[in-house]
């Protein structure tokens, strides 16, 4: 996301304030600014883009996917606004988790003073330390079944090592399987290093573990404040549309579960006309009460906490 030099300096200053790291320690301002932008860009693609596109498609993406057998029991007694908020949150969270993994990976690569996106097949990131080359496969959190990942890492690191050996003076190739959050101990087995989460951030940011964790959290906190501000509008619009669509015309304070049952379980000709009417009413309600931002991007960043 394009920003002015002044805006970028303000973001970096907030990162340093949150992390407690002064200039000259760890990654420089350019790497910090690039790390923030990388985090945002991934969320823009995997999360914000998807949420914005969902607004005009809310009937296909949210209404059609309501399970009346389970949701009616789960949300019993709740009004249309509360039900809509829950349905939108569930949809939003699925996309959020996917985006989060890509955002952390991009942030780590962009912020690292000696890290880069790897050109080697099956490798996410690489660092050159002296003559040695460190090859990383990155995961945002613990994976229950990771044997296939480890096997693939071994294969691809060996292929990379063969290519590197063609250059005189090449050092050792170290294959690393890094879990960016949730791994509390470091291990080494069968040719693969498995750094703890804090050790991973220490390696890529060039800091002691405690400082590295604080800096990584600060970058994510500042960037996520901007992301959450951007997504506030589509979440508001989706919630408004869904709430009005499922509202009972006879008792507006309740959800029309009889219609939801009809809409999700019966043939289209039985609910087509009502669907058009409800959709028109939902759009009219949103147009009458449009989204109004409550805070500015600067205020959102200032409220960011680690």
Number of extended strands: 6
What string gives the helices and strands in order? HHHHHEEEHEEEHHHHH
Largest sheet, strands/sense/barrel:
6 strands, mixed
Structural class: alpha/beta
SS field, number of helical segments: 11
How far is the first residue's CA from the last residue's CA?
Answer: 22 Å
How confident overall, as mean pLDDT?
Answer: 92
Rg result = 24 Å
Question: Percent range for helical residues?
Answer: 55-70%
Strand order of the largest sheet: 1-2-3-4-6-5
Strand content: 5-15%
The global form is elongated
**Unreliably modeled segments:** none
Mind sketching the topology for me?
Layout: H1 5-19, H2 29-54, H3 58-63, H4 68-74, H5 80-111, E1 115-117, E2 125-129, E3 132-139, H6 147-164, E4 173-179, E5 187-189, E6 192-194, H7 197-205, H8 209-246, H9 257-265, H10 272-288, H11 297-303
Parallel strand pairs: 3-4, 4-6
Antiparallel strand pairs: 1-2, 2-3, 5-6
Which features characterize this protein?
306 residues, alpha/beta, elongated, six-stranded mixed sheet, 9% strand
Could you give a quick summary of the protein structure above?
This protein has 306 residues and is of the alpha/beta class.
Summarize the structure in words.
The chain is 60% helix and 9% strand. The chain has helices at residues 5-19, 29-54, 58-63, 68-74, 80-111, 147-164, 197-205, 209-246, 257-265, 272-288, 297-303; strands at residues 115-117, 125-129, 132-139, 173-179, 187-189, 192-194. The chain has a six-stranded mixed sheet, sandwiched between helices. Helix 5 packs antiparallel against helix 8 (209-246) and helix 7 (197-205) packs across helix 8. The longest helix is centred in the C-terminal third of the chain and has 38 residues, at 209-246.
């Amino acid at each position: 996301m394009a920003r002015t030099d002044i805006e970028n300096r303000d973001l970096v200053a907030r990162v340093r304030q949150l992390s407690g790291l002064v200039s000259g320690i760890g990654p420089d301002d350019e790497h910090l600014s690039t790390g923030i932008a990388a985090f945002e860009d991934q969320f823009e693609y995997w999360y914000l883009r998807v949420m914005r596109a969902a607004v005009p498609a809310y009937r296909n993406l949210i209404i059609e996917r309501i399970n009346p057998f389970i949701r009616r029991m789960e949300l019993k007694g709740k009004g249309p606004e509360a039900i809509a908020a829950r349905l939108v949150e569930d949809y939003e969270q699925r996309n959020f988790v996917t985006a989060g993994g890509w955002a952390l990976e991009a942030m780590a690569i962009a912020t690292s003073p000696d890290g880069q996106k790897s050109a080697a097949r099956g490798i996410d990131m690489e660092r050159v330390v002296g003559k040695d080359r460190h090859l990383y496969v990155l995961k945002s959190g613990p994976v229950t079944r990771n044997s296939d990942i480890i096997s693939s890492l071994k294969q691809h690191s060996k292929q990379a090592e063969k290519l590197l050996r063609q250059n005189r003076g090449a050092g050792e190739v170290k294959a690393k399987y890094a879990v960016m959050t949730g791994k509390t101990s470091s291990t080494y087995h069968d040719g693969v290093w498995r750094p703890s989460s804090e050790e991973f951030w220490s390696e890529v940011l060039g800091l002691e573990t405690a400082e590295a964790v604080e800096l990584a959290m600060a970058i994510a906190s500042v960037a996520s404040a901007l992301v959450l501000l951007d997504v506030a509008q589509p979440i508001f619009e989706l919630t408004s549309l869904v709430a009005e669509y499922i509202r009972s015309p006879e008792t507006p304070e309740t959800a029309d579960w009889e219609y939801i049952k009809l809409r999700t379980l019966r043939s289209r000709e039985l609910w087509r006309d009502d669907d058009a009417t409800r959709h028109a009413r939902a759009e009219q309600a949103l147009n009458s009460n449009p989204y109004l931002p409550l805070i500015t991007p600067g205020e959102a960043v200032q409220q960011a906490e680690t």
